[in-house]
Amino acid sequence: MLFVILGLFSMAHYIIITGGVVSGLGKGITTASIGKLLQMHGYNVTAMKIDPYINCDAGTLRPTEHGEVWVTEDGGEIDQDLGHYERFLDINIPKYHNITTGQVYGTVIEKERKGEYLGKTVQPIPHVTNEIKERIKKPSKEKSYDFILVEIGGTVGDYENILFLEAVRQMKLEGEDVIFIHVTYVPILDALGEAKTKPTQHSVKLLREIGIQPDFIVARSEKPLDDVRKEKIALFCNVHEEEVISNPNIDNVYAVPLILEEQQLCQKILHKLNLKKDTRNLKPWRDFIENIRNLDKTVTIGIVGKYFDIGTFKLSDSYISVIEAVKHAAWNNNYKPEIQWIDSKLFEKHPEKLETLDGIDGVIVPGGFGLSGIEGKIETIRYVREHNIPYLGLCLGMQLAVVEYARNVCNLKNAQSTEIDAETPYPVIDVIPSQVKILQESRYGGTMRLGAYPAVLKRGTLVHQLYGKDKIYERHRHRYEVNPGYIEILEKNGLIFSGRSPDGILMEFLEIPGHPFFVATQAHPEFKSRPMKPAPLFNGLIKAAVKKQETLISN
Ligand code: GLN
């Protein structure tokens, strides 16, 4: 019994990942890869992300500024890095694994008002840092983990992450098992053709001024780091040469764990922590990567994006989970995915361009908010429905499929979602009743229908066949739904609602029988797709897309 209790409370080891030189280094992928490596060596791993912004969560951030909002099983709206962790580690991560400055200060201020620090001057150190430490240690109190990876957002030297760095510095001093991994960038200057280590030296210097000596330096660069550069980084950054790990650009992010394994990062971490167990098994992962690298056939999926027009952001960041889900499903079917971005606004100006969709094997209208490009999306859906092009609608993509069907098949002229036109004569998509008050009071943060909800699938439908189950759970993030008043007319005209909430009120899935693949869902199945376990609806889309391609070729 004592043994069991001791086992349950065995101490978790913390791996703290910091970033240096520039943001957008791929720290999230590096963190996920280190976690995957430890997992493949037989350890029980989870991960956390610290975001130093004041927002309480990412739900109120614009995708073009911060990338996609990741939705957790328990309804958190958080940073997309949590998506990398879930995909690589194949685990569900709860929302409290994302810590923001807003949450931390919110709690400290609340405690101060309640008199919990009565008589004390409440200060960033120790009160805020204590709150941070408590949050970092929380997972180990709820579950037994061997490793908790904690990625600290931003770059060392940023004003806003300083208290988080101070908190993790204290954790090590207080006796927690902590390994610090600093991810930096080693630029190769065009004019010189030489990799420069100076920015890395400076960023480690900044880290050491804060009192943190990194155990490992993971150097991101365009090409693998040579021994000369490794030696130099080691000397100037106070680490051994073998503690400098090269993490060059590669063809596939899922291969990063293998690059780290080649340099024995995991064994080196285990050695530092005196951990003996190593039941390494990388074969399935290696085979998975090998298989992807040998694929020669391509399937093309068009994603009708909307977050196109702001600054120099990467479009792919706004739709990262959708893209990854397409990749997983394509790989699973032994095809290389090719994503084509479709700007629906183009079709509004040039309807004749809709014909370009014929050259695409399958189309996705993903989730979205607001008015822009809506009519173009509806026209896209009409085109793919009428021309038998495989279609998958996600959340907004389902809502607009209903609008399109109502207008063009049920003859409900100018049908619309009330999110887009409050005065529409046929509000086929309307606010969920529980959301009305929330919107009236402008309580926007964390109040949508969020997280995993069950749906009961109708036997004999394509969706039921794809999931192979009667009841499934998918993650949601929306305020609008199919207006129950229009279900009868839509179904009478051939649309099938193949999945509903268990009480039968909310329409969760739809499909059009007779079409090669026309499926849409109010949920976001992309959040549950994993590299070796594609999401069923994406898998179905790819299979139909491949079929369309094959028929085209044989004709
Ligand atoms: N804007 C729509 C809603 O709130 C769709 C949201 C989404 O696509 N995630 O219902």
Summarize the structure in words.
The chain is an alpha/beta fold. It folds into 2 domains: 288 residues, Rossmann fold, CATH 3.40.50.300; 259 residues, Rossmann fold (3-Layer(aba) Sandwich), CATH 3.40.50. The strands form 5 sheets. The chain has a 9-stranded mixed beta sheet with strand order 13-12-14-15-23-22-21-18-19. Strands 5-2-6-1-7-10-11 form a 7-stranded parallel beta sheet, with helices on both faces. The protein has a 3-stranded mixed beta sheet with strand order 16-17-20. Strand 14, helix 16 and strand 15 form a beta-alpha-beta unit. Helix 6 packs across helix 7 and helix 16 packs across helix 17. The protein is globular. The N terminus is likely disordered. The chain binds glutamine (GLN). The site of glutamine has 10 residues, from strand 19.
TL;DR?
With 555 residues, the chain is of the alpha/beta class. It is built from 21 helices and 23 strands.
Task: Return Rg in Å.
Answer: 25 Å
Pick out the low-confidence regions: 1-7
Q: Roughly how many Å apart are the termini? A: 70 Å
CATH topology value of the largest domain: Rossmann fold
User: Which structural class matches the secondary elements?
Assistant: alpha/beta
The largest sheet is: 9 strands, mixed
Classified by CATH, the class of the largest domain is Alpha Beta
